[in-house]
Design the sequence.
């Protein structure tokens, strides 16, 4: 090894050692709170279904885009407070803050009030970065930060949801958690995914939250939907949207629907991006820097 | 019908069609909100005009590829209609009109190599090497004392006809290295022959 490359390599190895430290810190965090670790399969016969998330296939199966369905099946069997540190896979998601394979911290809490659950999620984030001021913002309010006149020319042919997604990603997200930690709440109902919908001033909003620091999305949580028929409907909507976008069809997971039709606790769940927390912790804007090997180098 | 690729297959330097014109991809950025549609923002350069613009694609779009080919050619000679070149691999001769060569006319010198860009089999641009070493054919001697007034450059005409600004100590007959993108003097190459 040449002398010139020493400091750089040392830095890389220091980050990887810190990665190991943080994985064990996360486990200790959950052990202290008496959550049980699970390790559900990565390769499944049914994929998660989301209009805008595409799975990678292998051996006519799917690499999981999230461990959610399997974990919820365990919830339905009575393992209600569980966590998982899982690699997940999303086709085509590659940028300075995306790698198609990444590490997700996912956990579920039964019979815990939303405010307490949100605090738990923020406490986990504060294992990685120093405590900071918390700002809470509704999705609607956050979107007001965008200037629609700055949409690109091509946007004229997009539908409203697509325009909104673009404005949120390019103009709102970079402003979130700039001097603290921002919680976005009360999403529009079409963004509910697997969350429950409630009424605020007669307006339906999804009981879903996202957490940002420095413009980086770190967490995505739900007050989990617990009705099989409504879930089935949402799947069908997503599948119809996928078809419109020219995406391949996906079969609905019958095991998951069956689990949802069982008696079900009041449940909150969240997915937190482990690699993104490492990026913040090491003040590095590139996900590559905190991975042993990124997608393009292995 | 042109070949198409999906957004996930886009890469830097790929040649694509935008409004039926050939562009090269300069830079790519993947943007995805926490929830919802993903986008790819591409900075693309028009291969004919050199203008760089930003294009935003939705994740499900397909992008038509441009049928673009490059060839390295050597200039044999020029005449009133344009330049006569030779492909350095197969020795085929090609004629390129002044209309295609355009402003690059002032960087043409016999025996030098240039890159030709073809779109659908037709030459659309002639690329000049970024740096060329050319002789100064005309420049007035620098006047002593000019530097005191803050003037350190004087104008000079190169053997290809390009007019450039050079430091006042450079003399007629010297060879200089010049940046063809800006026409700026870079360095003195050797002393007066």
Sequence:
């Amino acid at each position: 090894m040449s002398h010139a490359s020493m400091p750089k390599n040392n830095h890389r190895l220091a980050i990887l050692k810190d990665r190991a430290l943080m994985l064990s810190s996360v486990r200790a965090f959950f052990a202290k709170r008496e959550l049980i670790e699970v390790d559900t399969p990565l390769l499944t016969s049914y994929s998660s279904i989301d209009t805008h998330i595409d799975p990678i296939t292998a051996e006519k199966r799917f690499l999981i885009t999230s461990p959610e369905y399997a974990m919820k099946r365990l919830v339905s069997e009575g393992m209600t407070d569980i966590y998982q540190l899982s690699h997940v896979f999303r086709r085509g998601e590659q940028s300075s803050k995306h790698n198609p394979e990444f590490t997700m911290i996912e956990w579920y809490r039964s019979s815990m009030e939303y405010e307490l659950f949100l605090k738990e999620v923020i406490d986990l984030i504060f294992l990685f970065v120093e405590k900071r001021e918390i700002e809470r913002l509704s999705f609607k309010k956050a979107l007001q930060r965008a200037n629609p006149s700055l949409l690109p020319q091509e946007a004229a042919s997009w539908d409203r949801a697509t325009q909104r997604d673009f404005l949120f990603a390019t103009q709102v997200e970079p402003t979130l958690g700039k001097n603290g930690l921002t919680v976005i709440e009360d999403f529009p109902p079409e963004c509910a995914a697997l969350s429950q919908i409630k009424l605020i001033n007669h307006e339906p909003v999804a009981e879903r939250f996202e957490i940002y620091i420095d413009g980086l999305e770190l967490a995505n949580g739900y007050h989990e939907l617990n009705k099989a028929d409504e879930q089935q409907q949402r799947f069908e909507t997503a599948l119809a949207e996928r078809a419109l976008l020219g995406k391949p069809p996906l079969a609905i997971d019958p095991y998951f629907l069956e689990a949802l039709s069982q008696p079900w606790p009041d449940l909150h769940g969240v997915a937190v991006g482990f690699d993104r927390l490492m990026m913040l912790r090491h003040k590095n804007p590139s996900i590559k820097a905190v991975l042993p090997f990124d997608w393009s180098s292995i | 019908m042109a070949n198409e690729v999906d957004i996930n297959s886009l890469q830097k330097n790929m040649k694509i069609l935008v409004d039926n014109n050939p562009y090269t991809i300069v830079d790519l950025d993947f943007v995805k909100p926490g929830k919802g549609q993903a986008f790819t923002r591409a900075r693309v350069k028009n291969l004919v005009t050199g203008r760089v613009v930003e294009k935003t694609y939705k994740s499900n779009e397909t992008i038509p590829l441009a049928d673009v080919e490059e060839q390295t050619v050597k200039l044999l000679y020029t005449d009133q209609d344009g330049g006569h070149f030779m492909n350095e691999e197969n020795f085929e001769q090609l004629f390129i009109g002044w209309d295609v060569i355009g402003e690059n006319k002032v960087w043409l010198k016999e025996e030098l190599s240039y890159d030709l860009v073809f779109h659908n089999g037709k030459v659309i641009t002639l690329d000049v090497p970024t740096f060329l070493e050319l002789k100064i054919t005309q420049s007035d001697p620098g006047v002593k004392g000019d530097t005191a007034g803050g003037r350190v450059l004087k104008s000079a005409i190169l053997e290809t006809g390009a007019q450039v600004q050079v430091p006042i100590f450079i003399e007629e007959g010297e060879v200089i290295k010049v940046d063809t993108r800006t026409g700026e003097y870079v360095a003195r190459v050797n002393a007066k022959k």
